[in-house]
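Hello,

I think I submitted the heme C job twice by accident. Can you confirm which output corresponds to this input? Input:
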Amino acid sequence: MQSTAWAPPAIAHAQRMRAFRDVNRGSQQTPSAIPRFEIDSDPGGMVASYQPGGTTIAKNNPFFQNLGTNGRTCFTCHQPQTGWAISAQSAQSRFDQTGSADPLFRLVDGATCPSDDVSSPTAQRKAYLLLLEKGLFRIGLAMPANTQFEVTAVDDPYNCTTNPITGLISPTAGIVSVYRRPLPSTNLNFLSTIMWDGREPTLAHQALDATLTHAQGNNPGPTTAQQNQIVAFESGVYTAQIFDNDAHKLLAPPSSVTVTKPIPESSPLQCADTTIEQTGGPHALAQLAQDFFIGINDPLGQNPCATPFTSNIFDLYEGWSNLARNDPETAHRKSIERGEELFNTRPIVITGVAGLNDVLHETQITGTCGTCHDAPNVGDHSVKAPLNIGVTDANPGPIGLDISGLPVFTLTCTSGPLAGQIFHTTDPGRALISGNCADIGKTKGPILRGLAARAPYFHNGSAATLMGALNFYNDRFNIGFTDQEKQDLVNFLEAL
Ligand code: HEC
Ligand code: HEC
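Support: Only one job matched these inputs. Its output is below.
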């Protein structure tokens, strides 16, 4: 890995600049450029984005340009200080600063329904409530042509699961409205699937669809050249927390990691070892991207190199395991290191997860956090693996998560292996794409870097904090974390 000697001066500079920045500010104006190395304050400290290819001039890249009809750009919903997504807090500040003038607040999908009343400030606050409180956007999806289920009831406070054009309230026809968090438009080279439900085939196609829907673009939307420029920009950005309010610089002494990866174009496939060094911050991530491949560290036999799975997903903070001092900075660093160890090793008995227990025909699987978050030092799933861990459940809902304000769909399976079963869900997830009952409520495991910048968590914003997310896991899988262990894990997740 390249020397990290750059880092202390850059961070010292950022610390000086920090006094002039407002942690709570909502939006960045579209900047003239995204520098090669950008540092922004976030509630946990500072988040950094690194572009190995150098500075991007905004006016030269359509990611920052108004390609639709409602004033929105990709940058409206994907900004660096919120981990290239937006946080609920930033949506609040933008509303407080501009009323609903900021292009974030557009009826098409910022509001709970395009037909919402926005004639007064009170009405606007109500219409944009899910965005303001949970950072959620409405995703209107057409029912697939062939489904193994029928939507037999909808408890929808917004009357938006219908065809907004005809106004017909027909649960089985037209558009199903679900409410989801933006995913970060960064670290994209580590993705195995695009969108919460994996519905986009490529990033270029995603850019096209995002323009037509969020920005209400006219057909045919951005040109192929524009799509490619957007993809070139967003795929060239790496983002991670770089500075923690308590642990300070997150650049622990690097750990050496050996990756066994396919040799390109070898036939039959051959693999070779390479060794890289890992620590916190986005520079190490950019190094790591060269070694990522679909199936890396897959536990279920989908690794093309057949290298055995290791539950040691993160190797960022091992260098802090034997610190001698015990001042507050050091104590926090040790806690982060313990949290990493818990993530890597704490046994979790996985039960009732559709996509895992049913597929493997095992009612109990003893795993770890990394059974599902298996991509080394990134934490998404390294193969397409939609799972239902319970976040989408309704009646009863997921213990400890706040699913208030979300619609509840009752799906009755009419054909296929699950015929006769009834599901209550706040988001049918992958099933709205595949039409299959087995996919009801399934979502992807997202990348776990830059988390501190983009609360709330889970696709439906149901965990206001990382502690909330951990409490959910603790209850859902009976893990038995102590309070200290929870705090260590939260400190670790905040340092990603
Ligand atoms: C109005 C807000 C909004 C705008 C504008 C917007 N996005 Fe998004 N973006 C979202 C939401 C919400 C999701 C997740 C939706 C889902 O999974 O169903 C998302 C998901 C993504 C993802 C998927 C990342 C992953 O991990 O799968 C990418 C990439 C992305 N957006 C890029 C873009 C680009 C490029 C543009 C501009 C052409 C854009 N977005 C405009 C809200 C927005
Ligand atoms: C059985 C598979 C599985 C296990 C085990 C698991 N996760 Fe997850 N994780 C997921 C899935 C799937 C999601 C996305 C759920 C959603 O939002 O619908 C997720 C989401 C998350 C998120 C939210 C990320 C975001 O951007 O909102 C965090 C944080 C997280 N997991 C941390 C952990 C930790 C820590 C552990 C171990 C204590 C763990 N996970 C164990 C599958 C798993």
